[in-house]
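Human: I would love a firmer grasp of how sequence relates to backbone shape in proteins. Take your time, and here it is.
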Amino acid sequence: MNIHEYQAKQLFKSHGVPVPGGGAATTEREARELIKEHGPDVVIKAQVHAGGRGKGRIVKRDRTTRIYNDLTADPERYEGQITGRRRGGVRLAGGTEEALKEFRPMMEQDARLVSIQTGADGVPISAVLIEQQTSIAKEYYFSIQVDGANGQPLIVASAEGGQSIEEVNRTNPRAVLRVPVDPVEGFPAFRGRSLASRLGLPSSAVRPAGEMFANLYRVFMDMDASLVEVNPFVLTSEGIVVAIDGKVGLDDNASFRHGGYEEWRDRSQENPTEIEAEEANIGSYIKLDGDIGCVVNGAGLAMATMDTLKLHGGEPANFLDIGTVNRKDRVIEALRIIVNDPDVKTIFINIFGGLARVDIVAEGVVDAVKELNIQQPLVVRLNGSNVEEGRRVLHDSGIAVQTADELGDAAELAVNAAGSGKRRTRSKG
């Protein structure tokens, strides 16, 4: 689960990490107070769960034309459907009136931010972070993430901050430092000072930088985070180390230890269908951009199913692992989520019964078709426990369904049913 930058900086500040003075505003009155306290020169940052804000734009959808218009409205096409001049979600302002001029479009009703990470529809702007500007002498990168291969935290740092760390790693891999952390030992300040020296910080900044790194590690551990990233932290012209950006991802699997993370969660940034799937407790659901709805048991099989659909020229509308299925109502709820997605043109059910009983899945499919009045073409592949009984249930039900025994054949049926298949030729012999 992601949280907003202003929330990440609240965590940083409470753990002794230096951040610029500022706060989040949702009204013009709050904005004026923050500008008065931290101005006159401030940074205005739209708060969304997406990167690329600086190169994105603030838009609002015209309810008549259904075209997204930039709230500053100079004519220019963007991705075929967004008009307006480029005006990012991170702006610099000098003085109250200029700052409010930048603030107002971001918090206008129905305003959204579109960036390279959001898709064409963008995401709603939940708040605006207003901070004092920082005089930057040098930018650096720092993050902590989970190294799944080694089962321990991994610190990644670079003296080339303020840009994509992936791009830095591609163009200059020697500039990226990786420091594995033993979770028993932790990351004390003396190790932080060693890292600061390796990054080339001046001697006067090594100690405060080392303490900042150690405190960021405490954020990571205290919050059961999956990611803590500061890109960039900077050395100011006065020689002070400051985290001027912040990103924190929280591990949903640890939410029970933190009250479900409810105080940090912003549901407006989440896909409504994913929220519905979570509340229905049907398994792991992720919305995608395709038109073939998928119901699969097992994460590995679900990924293989999506790969096979793409191999045949199709595009999955979702990832859905419904887990071990031994109740018909679970199948019905999963199909309810899929059917309610307006992008879905056909439904592909791929079940392998190990602990799951295939006959119960088949009964759930039949009941769902009748109860939900499913109109989309339905392709079903069943295998495993009680498979013959499951196939008989489908055959005797009288519902319109296409079946196949092999994954490739079933995927091809689904792609063709969605009308998104690519013609393929196979050489013989």
User: Anything to note?
Assistant: The mean pLDDT is 89. The chain is about 35% helix and 25% strand.
